[in-house]
Amino acid sequence: MSAVVDLVALTLLPLGRWRAVAEQFQAGQTAPAILEQQCDEWTTSGRPRSPCPGVHALRSRAAAALERASRFGVDCIPSTDARYPAALRTIFDPPPVLWLRGSISIFDGWSVAIVGSRSGSPYALAVAERLSADLSARGLVVTSGLARGVDSAAHRGALSVGGRTLAVVGCGVDVAYPREHRSLMTEIAATGAVVSELVPGTPPQAHFFPLRNRIISGLSRAVVVIEAGEKSGSLITARCALEQGRDVLAVPGNILNGRNRGGHALLRDGAKIVESADDIVEELGLASGRTTTAVTLDVQPALPEGDPVLVHLSPGEPSDVDTIAERSGLSTAALLTRLFELELAGLVGRAAGGRFVRLDRTC
User: Fold this and answer.
1) Predicted local distance difference test score (pLDDT) of residue 256
2) In the predicted structure, residue 147 carries a pLDDT above the cut 90
3) Which residue, among 208, 152, 219, 224, has the nearest Cα to 185 in the 3D structure?
4) Nearest 5 degrees, angle CA 123-CA 217-CA 357?
5) Are 22 and 93 in contact (CB under 8 A)?
6) Is residue 285 classed as helix, strand or coil in its secondary structure?
7) Class of 104-284 per CATH?
8) Closest Cα to residue 8, out of 90, 73, 75?
9) What pLDDT band is residue 273 in, cutting at 50, 70 and 90?
10) 81, 140, 218, 354 — which has fewest CB within 10 A?
11) Per-residue pLDDT, 47
12) DSSP notation for 64-118
């Protein structure tokens, strides 16, 4: 339990220290060592408006958060837990802890993120709901951010056909935001899940939402942008997806009202155009065809002799991404995608410091 407490305590550090924490994890440092060092640096920074409460105080707050989670039926999934989603482990800065309200099995299937404007037009809302329903009917999990507009339409589309949907929120999973989505949040948790990297009880704040976007994309195989303006938060999610090696797709919109200039910019930059769920399924390389019941997707990658990644990994010998990329000749984006597939198939595991190791099993 002490190890989990330290991981939770790290999420209570100021946001300005989160990237440094991620870099220290990448370097293979342990949570207790990182916590001690970050608190020392916080103390010596000499900021009177935000004094460091100390390691002991942070651990006490972390323990209180775990107790609150237990009372409210919220599951704590540290990054050291085997249940932690494999897809999220592959990003540069995976959250030290995920808080989950709902079913952990939500991470078992393939996910597609649908994001877009909070003030979406009727067209955007209709497209989001339709695409989400069609993807859910094929057994895919629809991930979004539970915001007003396109996000909520995407969640409702999945629920309308009995599908499962995952909401990544910029507050505690026990905090309804926006307030009018309280019942929607409960409905999502009943069959899918609501997740956050923030401790239960954390109120929504503007700076949390851009951060949660990396989790939306990190948990997904592809991100579909529906009606995004030039400064839309959805473009942050798309950028995270590209950095993480995920596919980015966009729905074209009305060129006269300017609502979708961000989406059209993505299309000009090479994002695949989406006119139906078939376009998304095709991009993912999955068999097309509509079904009204959930299906189990085969994520076992083809493993011809001389796989460009596996041949450069030895069982028990961790290698970092740069080394594997150099040996395999793959781009970082292509390599991360392949490592993600191999990890889901149980052929590659994640080691300390963001390195990967081949698991000793028959392919």
Assistant:
1) 67
2) yes
3) 152
4) 155
5) yes
6) coil
7) alpha beta
8) 75
9) very high
10) 81
11) 67
12) HHHHHHHHTTPEEEETTSTTS-HHHHTSSS--SEEEEEE-GGGGSS-EEEEEE-T
What is the pLDDT confidence band of residue 141, given thresholds at 50, 70 and 90? very high
Q: What is the pLDDT of residues 172-217, one digit of tens each?
A: 999 999 999 999 999 999 999 999 999 999 999 999 999 999 999 9
Angle between helices 233-243 and 261-268 (to 10 degrees): 20
CA-to-CA dists, residue 178 to 4, 165, 204, 205, angstroms: 30, 18, 9, 12
Cβ contact 182:176 at 8 Å: yes
Compute the chain's Rg from CA coordinates. 20
CATH 1.10.10.60 fits 310-358, yes or no: no
What are the structure tokens assigned to 214, written together? 């990396």
Which helix (H) or strand (E) element contains residue 18? helix 18-26
Domain ranges of the chain: 2-71, 104-284, 310-358
Residue carrying the six token digits 């409460």: 53
In this prediction, residue 281 carries a pLDDT of 93
Other Cβ atoms within 10 Å of 316 Cβ, number: 10
∠ at Cα 145 (233, 210), nearest 5°?
35
pLDDT of residue 78: 95
138 contact partners, CB below 8 Å, separation of at least 6: 277, 281, 286, 289, 290, 291, 295
Q: Considering the entire predicted model, what is its pTM?
A: 0.78
Contacts of 302 (CB under 8 A, 6+ apart): none
User: Could you give the CA distance from residue 161 to residue 344 in angstroms, rounded to a whole number?
Assistant: 27
